[in-house]
Design brief:
Rossmann fold, 9 strands, 7-stranded parallel β-sheet, 260 residues, alpha/beta, globular
């Protein structure tokens, strides 16, 4: 059997990089899509990953043509992936009263939602014909309830969860799996900018290991770590009046350009 292939977006840092290393250690070839390709190549060299076991594709998931082209290039160079992980995402605070922040929201949706669908797009027909494959969407526990100052990110991740649920129903008759993983707080450059407490903070390598197991098991949806899954369920059950009181005074997500 040929060596399996995984395609991962947002592979230049954080969760994407940790997932890439976990799949490499499991014997997969890597197709890594990122804007900062030089950083990915430097990281791969530092990890001792041989050049014949990975390829880096320059792509901006917020640009539909860019990420679609990367997907087609991947299939031409390395073949059809066994697993596609749409991991790339951004998280920036917003204030609806500020005109510039509407652009932040548009950019967030372009990256976290349209970019996710565009990541999957090149591979769907080929996976359907092959009658196998796994499409993985990275959501967030922030998509379960809205957090003050976090409207763009929370809305985008709620959309990821719903979109992947829709896609799962569409792909099921063809043997193509759709897996949704919603991380809690993972120690990455993205979360280190947060100015509020992050319960059950998890190291990226630990997250990648659990995500790998979840994907291998073909689970449809999972929150990692499980403790945050329990917290999310409890928050979902809270009446609005209690939820609003709980979040009163909570520090807002830092807006673009806002100082520490």
């Amino acid at each position: 059997m040929p060596t399996p292939l995984v395609f991962i977006t947002g592979a230049s840092s954080g969760i994407g990089q940790a997932l890439a290393l976990r799949y490499h250690r499991a014997g997969y070839r890597l197709a890594l899509a990122a804007r900062r390709t030089s950083e990915v190549k430097t990281w791969a060299e530092d990890c001792g990953i041989s050049t014949d076991s990975y390829h880096v594709y320059s792509a901006d998931v917020a640009n539909i043509e860019s990420i679609v082209a990367a997907g087609h290039d991947c299939m031409a160079r390395q073949g059809l992936p066994n697993i596609v992980i749409a991991n790339a995402g951004i998280s920036v605070g917003m204030d609806t009263a500020v005109r510039e922040d509407l652009e932040v929201m548009a950019r967030t949706f372009a990256t976290n939602n349209t970019g996710l669908a565009a990541t999957f797009h090149p591979f769907v027909d080929a996976m359907v014909l092959r009658k196998s494959g796994t499409l993985v969407g990275i959501g967030s526990v922030a998509g379960i309830r809205g957090l003050p100052g976090h409207g763009a990110y929370c809305a985008s991740k709620a959309a990821v969860i719903s979109y992947c649920e829709s896609l799962r129903g569409e792909m099921r008759p063809y043997g193509v799996r759709v897996v949704t993983i919603s991380p809690g707080y993972i120690d990455t450059p993205l979360t280190r900018q947060n100015r509020y407490s992050m319960p059950f903070l998890m190291q990226a390598d630990d997250f990648a290991d659990r995500a790998f197991q979840t994907i291998a098991a073909g689970k449809s949806y999972r929150v990692i770590p499980w403790q945050m899954g329990m917290v999310a369920k409890l928050l979902r059950m809270l009446p609005n009046v209690l939820f609003d009181r709980l979040l009163a005074g909570r520090p807002r997500k830092r807006r673009q350009g806002e100082q520490q």
